[in-house]
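WARN retry 2 of 3 for item q-0093 after timeout on previous attempt; input resubmitted unchanged.
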Amino acid sequence: MKQVLLLGDSIRMQYQPAVGEKLADIACVSGPEENGRWSGYTLNSLRFWLPSLPSPDLVQWNCGLWDMGDDYQEGRHFYPPDLYEETCHRICRVLRKVVRPDLKIVIATTTPTLHGDHGDILLYNDILRKVAAEEDAAVNDLYAVVSPAKGEMIGEDHIHLTPVGIEACAARTAEVIRKALG
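OK item q-0093 returned
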């Protein structure tokens, strides 16, 4: 049985149980009990999470909404695009250094929200695609899954998934992971 590790924010936490059910025939799916928050938090937390979780054959991770937030009203992203890109590269490198050099990595794009025009989300997702290409990682485009029906897939808080969104993201994630595990 393969071991799959899912890392990421509260959106990942929503769809992780359903991904585990969908992959139960080929993989055990696990992830930290805590929210991965922003990319720097995920990077720093790898040293705590990895020793306590099964050694993975594949890791899917995502970070984004926290990175692009302006929590301190400074008129800037919490993690500006250049720092975000660097940190995303480091997550891939550290995973392969700590787990093993041939670790399969999938990077999930940030899902849309019901706020704003999504320019920042599209910019940060482009960065993720660039990092994935440079780090030989697959892309799980969850933005493309949710965006066409975001009114149905995003809940009242304008960020988190509805049951329909959870099912759609879990189905896509299981499909991408199943393909990556070959």
